[in-house]
Design a protein that fits this description.
- The complex is a heterodimer of chains A (about 260) and B (about 240).
- By secondary structure, chain A is α/β, with parallel strands linked by helices.
- Chain A has a single domain, classed as P-loop containing nucleotide triphosphate hydrolases (Rossmann fold, 3-Layer(aba) Sandwich).
- Chain A is built from ten helices and ten strands.
- In chain A, helix 4 packs parallel to helix 6 and helix 5 packs across helix 6.
- Chain B has about 240 residues and is mainly α.
- Chain B has a single domain, classed as MetI-like (MetI-like fold), CATH 1.10.3720.10.
- In chain B, helix 1 crosses helix 10 and helix 7 runs antiparallel to helix 10.
- The radius of gyration of chain B is 21 Å and the shape is globular.
- The relative contact order of chain B is 0.16.
- The chains are: A alpha/beta (about 260), B mainly alpha (about 240).
- At the A-B interface, helix 3, strand 6 and helix 4 of A face helix 5 and helix 6 of B.
Chain lengths: ~260, ~240
Amino acid sequence: MHDTAALREAPPVSPPECLRTATGRYPLSVRGLSYSADGQDIIKKVSFDLPSDDLTVLMGPNGAGKSVLLRLLHGLMAPTGGTILWNGRPIDRALRKSQAMVFQKPVLLRRSVLQNLRFAMGLRGLARSRGDLEPILKRLHLQTLADRPARLLSGGEQQRLSLARALALKPEILFLDEPCANLDPASVQLIEDTIKQAQAQGTKIILVTHDIHQARRLAEQVVFLHHGQVSEITPADIFFNAASSREARAYLDGKILI
Amino acid sequence: MQDFRNAFSLAFELIASLDANLLSIVGLSLRVTFAALLISCLIGLPIGAALAVSRFPGRGAIVVVFNTMMGLPPVVIGLLVYMMLSNAGPLGVLRLLYTPGAMVIAQTILVTPIIVALSRQVIEDLDREYAEQFRSLVVPFPAAMAALLWDARFALATVALAGFGRAIAEVGAVMIVGGNINHVTRAMTTAIALETSKGDLALALALGIILLLIAMTVNAAVQGIKASARRNAYA
């Protein structure tokens, strides 16, 4: 805990008590989280709780710090201050192994589709015969592409493979950073359906998007970020009708937030 | 001019008739160079990959040293290996001086820095792309190294061929430690130097033509590898 005085002044942002669903299997608690790089404060002493396993969408204008916050929650970057506790535990290697992330720009090995999946599953010692991989390939409509070099796939196909690889690891928590930016509508729908299915099967989903339509389709709760701070955490049905923060209302109204 | 034409026709005759002396020289050159290249890759690729992915104090200095060593003058390497292997030297007991083994050692020292420096560059570029994804997947260090080496295989093949080109065309080091002994340590380059000074231009020219053909084949192979890698988006 870095700045306890500041923490006392700013209580953690939580969903309203009356609307909060029961505590989930993977509660997240963030206290005084900061991240700065090159003298710029990107995340500014953020404190909040996500007790439930609701499908959470991180929204906010460009440069609000969404992607950075996601990377901090996944442990890809070390915060400059504050703590992140998953189920009361700080992030370590073992914890990160139970998480997976889909990046905005898919990073695929210079190998076939099948070998990309095998590489990831091999890291966790999971079964990886072609038959074992058939369901996940089928789920994301990749079965006819299994032997193609991954990097020759279209953007949508690459992102579907990236999601397939993440899900093949059977993560408890799945992070997605703008997974559908610039993708064809068919791939977007397939990816969104797969995300919802994964959540129904018990994976906690945290997704970054600045596509309001996608957020409406997927979100159960919305964390709205502005200037590196959490403006509000609100259940989706309330957020899109009556967001409580001025920034979120302006954003939803299509005003340009600076 | 007459001499010149004669030399060329004799050279082609030697090649066409698969002259035994010519073949033994070419064979030794290729054996020594391939052995040196194999050892250089076994040493250089892991060092290059490790340098590419790790950050530690002094790393920058090591990178500069290897980059500088890429341009080491072969005669200096020859001299140092000679001093090590000569009877008075620390490795004199091995009695390797004036053997193909000594030539392999000298060429390995010449080629390894090339493999290290170029493979570090190749793998560092690839690692920049993979690093965050690998961190997310929690890939252990040895597995990450193996994956980087494998995924960079086409670029690394061209690195190896660059090392091959340096070794096969090199004359100073193998001359000093091999001694250019006929049928024992006479390589293409040292034979060319000797025959030219003796005035036997035909054999020198024949060897020169073969050396050029090998260089062309190597470059064609590099082009072919790059093209096939590009087709599969593996480059």
